[in-house]
Amino acid sequence: MTIDLHAHSTASDGTTPPAALPRLAAEAGLTVLALTDHDTFAGLAAASAASDIELVAGVEISCRLDDAEVHLLGLFVDPGHASLAAELELIRTDRARRAVRMVERCRELGAPITLSQVREIAAGAPLGRPHIAAALAAVGITDAFTSDWIADGGRADVPKHVLSTVDAIALVRAAGGVAVLAHPRSVKRRASVSDTQLAGLASAGLAGVEADHPEQPPEVRTRLREVATDLGLLTTGSSDFHGDRKPVRLGEHTTSPEVLAALRSHRS
């Protein structure tokens, strides 16, 4: 088995249609793929209908840990679970409000972008910062994720509705799934999840951490495995595939069959 537990489609901020992902995954040699679009299950039906590999129902939830944003993978979840579906809907609708206001702020700061451009880039997907960043890049602003523009706390940033990570873990578990913290020490993110914070999340029901990830160098992966072992957490690996939006291939990092089996056993 070759297993990738983190991938995105055009249902959120990827560039590959959901129905095309299983074929690409099979061509990459994968036998198991988790579709984990941001705060939505919208791509699951199309991906499942086209799948000739095992497709894991998943979602990547944007949430808050102390003063920082982190991302939580919910794997093997029930997409129809009412409380989880309602919370994801609230996150998505607030994201659209936020995106509109961020475009307005960018324009106020002198960037000649429009909401229609951002919507065209999103191509029907829920509006998000990557779409705004692409619009900014099209007018020559290639450093969008900085304090000058749309990074967290940046001049064009807008606060958003967000769950606490502990509450997100509880929702994933209530929906029959398992919770894995995505890229907790990515070199591309402002905040790094500390050992102490991981211990607190483990006590709250976290099942695992994503250790092998393209944005985490080898020494970080090694340390995450050490901490996970001490805390009784599983360690996963994945590509965090976004199609053409990131220079990452499906299956660039993978999860062992033993860990996949252990994740299944953690299901509520």
UniProtKB/TrEMBL annotation:
GO molecular function: 5'-3' DNA exonuclease activity; 5'-3' RNA exonuclease activity
Parts of the chain that traverse the membrane: none
SUPFAM superfamilies: PHP domain-like
InterPro entries: PHP_dom (IPR004013), PHP_domain (IPR052018), Pol/His_phosphatase_N (IPR003141), Pol/histidinol_Pase-like (IPR016195)
Pfam families, sorted: PHP
All residue ranges annotated as the Polymerase/histidinol phosphatase N-terminal domain in the record: 3-65
UniProt superkingdom: Bacteria
Start-end of Basic and acidic residues biased regions: 241-252
Region Disordered: start-end pairs: 235-268
CDD domains the UniProt entry points to: PHP_HisPPase_AMP (cd07438)
Name assigned to this protein: PHP domain-containing protein
